[in-house]
Structure formats: C-alpha cells, structure tokens
Design a protein that fits this description.
single chain; alpha+beta; two-stranded antiparallel sheet
C-alpha cells in the first residue's frame, strides 16, 4: 500500500455498505453508481439513472 495504511481492526467494507451498494445497483436499469470516498472510507453513494424513450 502507499502512504497511509488503514488499521486492520477498522472494517472498511461492511455488510451494510455492501447491501446498500447492491440495492443501488438493483434499482436502476440504465445509469451509474458512484462511490464517494474520503480518508479511505465510503461516505456517499450517488445513483444516476437514465430513462430511455423509444
């Protein structure tokens, strides 16, 4: 790892984070999911959905 290493005792990828990310992905058909990370921690999940008209 580079520069700042995070202690192993601190869980960075939790079940709650995984559940929220899976939910965000499941809810959209076309679009994107973006993770916002600060100090090595996910602090925000942005979801952008596109609606396609035929």
């Amino acid at each position: 790892m580079s520069g700042k290493e995070h202690p192993r005792s601190e869980e960075l990828w939790t079940r709650d984070l995984e559940a929220r990310l899976r939910s965000a992905i499941k809810e959209i058909r076309y679009g994107s999911v973006t993770l916002v990370i600060q100090d090595g921690h996910v602090v925000q999940i942005d979801k952008s959905e596109k609606v396609r008209l035929k």
